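User: I'll paste a sequence; please echo it back and then give the predicted structure.

Assistant: Echoing your sequence first, then the prediction.
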Amino acid sequence: MSFGESEKHVTEQEIKKASEVFRSGYFDSPGEARVLLVDLIVKSAAGYRSSYTEEAFLARCGVLKRDGTPNKKGRLFLCAMLYKHSNFQSDYVVLQNEFKRLPRSSVKGAVIYD
């Protein structure tokens, strides 16, 4: 999958190298890591703390300032991932729909996503 504009700011090679801090097999694809990267940047910008592993992932991607706010690279990455013209879904929404499926439920009457 091509990541379009966001690939200019955080490349696939940077994502692969940064994801080495996670245990082997944590990500199935760089797209899944991009979804996590967006989530972690927003979490950090909101003032919440991340785990040591998440902090290492963010540091290796080089998207935050020392105070935890997104730097220029991080802001451009967020804009590229989250913004699209109103006629299209953003890269984040497309990737999130692909990777963040709800688990199948055994509860009677629950909606099951396939």
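The chain is about 50% helix and 0% strand. Residues 30-45 form the longest helix (16 residues).
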